[in-house]
Design goal:
The structure holds 2 protein chains of 2 kinds. By secondary structure, chain A is mostly beta strands. Chain A contains no helices and 11 strands. The N and C termini of chain A lie far apart (31 Å). Chain B is an all-beta fold. Chain B is globular, with a radius of gyration of 13 Å. The mean pLDDT of chain B is 94. Classes of the chains: A mainly beta, B mainly beta. At the A-B interface, strand 5 of A face strand 4, strand 5 and strand 10 of B.
Chain lengths: 114, 111
């Protein structure tokens, strides 16, 4: 158990819909990262928050948004869903975003768009 | 930004053989290189990492080597076991930006 909690574990929805994925980081970790894992695409970085502020943005679509709340949990919002958004979405946390260090991944939220 | 390439995409070995996975990176400022293992249906987990001030690091049957001049680093697994079967990801960062991952190598160890 990494200490990172993601909900829901599985989600099936239709094209055009909107979903929210939730992540609670390890106790004490201030930095939260979101990654998308599609077949043959590895781990694609979406966005990072540190202590409530957006820290870095990767290949995140305009239809996607995220935020980190004062209690440090984070939510990833995916809207106007398309078939190609079907993927495993991982949240990870770390103590600090600087100097390199271990990322602790949650179990992931598997999104299926039909 | 950083670009990490990883080879091979799949690797099949017999139990007891060695396995080598290679990665190259583009940003000469990168100084932290972790390797993550992802078993089927599970989350990625860190197995070993190396910083640019060392050339090699070992932990039991796994080792990582780094060649800063050539901008490549490798994962070596000796005496492979079936439980080593997984997808392995390399990554790189200069420490002040997020990790950039390679596309992964699926390692299959046959008994």
């Amino acid at each position: 158990d990494s200490g990172v909690t993601q909900t829901p574990k599985h989600l099936i929805t239709a094209t055009g819909q909107r979903v929210t994925l939730r992540c609670s980081p390890r106790s004490g970790d201030l930095s939260v990262y979101w990654y998308q894992q599609s077949l043959d695409q590895g781990l694609q970085f979406l966005i990072q928050y540190y202590n409530g502020e957006e820290r870095a943005k990767g290949n995140i679509l305009e239809r996607f948004s995220a935020q980190q709340f004062p209690d440090l949990h984070s939510e990833l919002n995916l809207s106007s869903l398309e078939l190609g958004d079907s993927a495993l979405y991982f949240c990870a946390s770390s103590i600090t975003p600087d100097r390199g260090g271990e990322l602790f991944f949650g179990e992931g939220s598997r999104l299926t768009v039909l | 930004g950083e670009n990490v390439e990883q080879h091979p995409s799949t690797l099949s070995v017999q139990e007891g053989d060695s396995a080598v996975i290679k990665c190259t990176y583009s940003d000469s400022a990168s100084n932290y290189f972790p390797w993550y293992k992802q078993e089927l249906g599970k989350r990625p987990q860190l197995i070993i990492d190396i910083r640019s001030n060392v050339g090699e690091k070992k932990d039991q049957r796994i080792a990582v080597t780094l060649n800063k001049t050539a901008k490549h680093f490798s994962l070596h697994i000796t005496e492979t076991q079936p439980e080593d079967s997984a997808v392995y990801f390399c990554a790189a960062t200069e420490g002040y930006s997020t990790l950039t991952f390679g596309k992964g190598t699926m390692l299959l160890v046959s008994p």
